[in-house]
Amino acid sequence: MGERRAWADKRDEIMSRPGAGAAYEAARVRFELGEAVRLRREELGLTQAELADRSGLKQPAVARFEAGGTMPTIPMLERLAEALEMRLSVQLQPLREAS
After folding, report:
1. Which CATH number fits domain 12-83: 1.10.10.10, 1.10.260.40, 3.50.50.60, 3.40.605.10?
2. Is pLDDT at 17 greater than 90 in this prediction?
């Protein structure tokens, strides 16, 4: 059987690969956007199907988005924001200030 390694060692190995940092950051953005939409939808008492109807999407698309499974376009974010009674705000930040 193979040698067991600590998770931290495995993570460091994976993150040292070319492009791993960018992929991780993209996944983080997808997750955070999906979570924000889900929390607001729940705050409004909407189901995924109701949000889909309001935004012109299909329920599975809303489910995938909320799970962080898709990177949305700006038009999609605008549709979701309007359906959630919110205003979309996109901003660029210097890397040293972004978290």
Report:
1. 1.10.260.40
2. no
